[in-house]
User: Fold these one by one.
Assistant:
Number 1:
Amino acid sequence: DVVMTQSPDSLAVSLGERATINCKSSQSVSHSANNNNYLAWYQQKPGQPPTLLISWASTRESGVPDRFSGSGSGTDFTLTISSLQAEDVAVYYCQQYYSAPITFGQGTRLEIK
Amino acid sequence: QLQLQESGPGLIKPSETLSLTCTVSGGSISSGYFWGWIRQPPGKGLEWIGNFYYSGRTYYNPSLKSRVTISADTSKNQFSLKLTSVTAADTAVYHCARRRDDYGDYYDYWGQGTLVTVSS
């Protein structure tokens, strides 16, 4: 299985500041033939199911604020929140879908400093 | 708006079979999507259990494959999960979810989840 490792495990950022979450895969999750990156990001707020934020490493879902952005390729990916808002407090997960079974990172807890 | 809702027993005993149902509203499970189950042990991360396509194709996580069955009742617009020989390690919130499309195995609609506790 592809192991997904997120860093940091938890993060405290001031309102309006940038938050950066990293995700590293144990093998490449990018397809050289089509340049697609098989990586998704989810947000999970307490007591709620995960919400899909980004697919294909950088494609934002409809309705997701543009302060959320994804980047990366190969084995290293990043979720960036450009200006943290109070409603962004959550746990964030990356997920690879390049190789079965799909696997998730352990999660990064984002809090307000 | 598509909605998914899990239902089933919240407490089962070790060695028993976990049985959950996902009821889909606002869309049909025969509409050409994959539908799956994903679980989350309390305070921990997410684990994909498996998914199915309405035509009958099923795919399971190899770590659970020997104990898992996912099936559908299209007349009720429901799909189900059965997990046999459960242990405390199977205690988790179980979510049903819809896979976005054929090109990528990621999930865009999720049920709220139901907590299943395995304990004697």
Number 2:
Amino acid sequence: ELKVEQNPLFLSMQEGKNYTIYCNYSTTSDRLYWYRQDPGKSLESLFVLLSNGAVKQEGRLMASLDTKARLSTLHITAAVHDLSATYFCAVVRGNAGNMLTFGGGTRLMVKP
Amino acid sequence: DVKVTQSSRYLVKRTGEKVFLECVQDMDHENMFWYRQDPGLGLRLIYFSYDVKMKEKGDIPEGYSVSREKKERFSLILESASTNQTSMYLCASSAGGTSYNEQFFGPGTRLTVL
């Protein structure tokens, strides 16, 4: 059974600082998503990572994937208040092509 | 743009009531999903459907049932609501096929059971 662990679950940081969110998963998968959720809103897809060593960047967010370590990271550079949201990683289940397993989410608060 | 809509944003029901949550997608997607979202647990799959009248149990199906009579509509049913079903419910849809296709999510329904 695929398990996805995300940490930290809560992160409070100052504007301008850097930080990394970690996503570990327990079994082989060929695809990992990062989503953002604003309060009261639905999930917005940020990145899809398809292969070992994949790196994607959008603004102050950069996601990477190490399939050998079964680890993905979401790195935040010089955080700004607008990045405050909850971030989820989700892993495609290897033997059930249309299903995802989600991590517990990281609630990020960026303080001015 | 894919659009997934859910019938209610907020719902308050009493213990023992039968509750229907409706989801509609407009992109002719074969697959539809129901999740519940709880703090610290992420999203957990309740049921999914890969075709009209077809359904599969997800990870936490107990206490729920589903109905898919038309391709665009997927309903989640709580036969007898209980307080531990108070949660945020999210619907999603994706194109069909043997490989994974991205899921698109609705805005969610926050259900409170008193």
